[in-house]
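Throughout this review, each integer encodes one residue's backbone shape. One record appears below.

===
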Amino acid sequence: MRNTPGVIAAAETTIVPLNGDGWNEFIDIPSVSISRQLVYFNAASTGYFQTLEIPMIAGRDFSENDTPAFPLEAIVNEQFARSFFPGSNPIGKTFDHRQEGGKPNLVYRVVGLVGDTRYRDLHEDPVPIIFVDEYQIADPGTDSTFLVRSAEDSSALIASLKDTSAQTSPAIVLNFSVLRTSVLEKLTRERLMATLSGFYGVLAAILAMIGIYGIISYMVIRRRNEIGVRIALGAGKANILGMILREALALLAIGLVAGTGLAAAAGSAARAMLFGLKPVDPLTLALAAGGLTIIAVAASAIPAARAAGVDPMKVLREE
């Protein structure tokens, strides 16, 4: 597969990340007095972390020369190191993989440390994960799962992989799925909520602009005579514009304070509908407040300009 045109990287694995499958086993770590700890496992070949672009923090990757006859090796993620070897480098440490049926425990030595990833689902926090060498599994079975990274179109890549498979053995049967598509399908609810929230956000901004425009226009009409008297007494257009805009911004400030408080209070309820976002994000709140300020100034500009253009003589005659 790695030699197939268009393939950037490929590797074999037992558990495909984020597809809902899981494999957990009990381990013992005698050096830190940990016994019968349930931890997630995955089996991976060399190139697995390169294929998924998971950073190698320390140590090394698996080797294609490893076999069940060699000392058993494992690679762990940062969450595993934080949980079981806090404040120390896990490279070179060992743990026992408990076996059922009275079989002796398998002793693994940690040879690599990789960055944290999600295991079964995007919504879960990173958990301790142990990666064992795919080549050191004594009974690998007849099925294999491969991960392939490519920049090619999926249909063209699949056709190339099928040709490669047929040349290797016509008896091989391949089934394909696109990891990106699977992930997007799992985020359908969040994407729907994001679309609806965006739509209602734009609608709310429009209604806010119309509402501010209406309030300021009504205020200007009610105070038309007062504004005419102010102009007659020497107030310039800049003074009238400033007065109207200051009053509009005062109303806006009251609304922003109340709205920010309500948004913070509703943050915990909105947490379930968010992915990769904090329910109370200062940057988001600041951008929303800035956007509403721009909308308020724009909506107040026309009534303020109309107020500044009042003819004092006409107003005084009407009075």
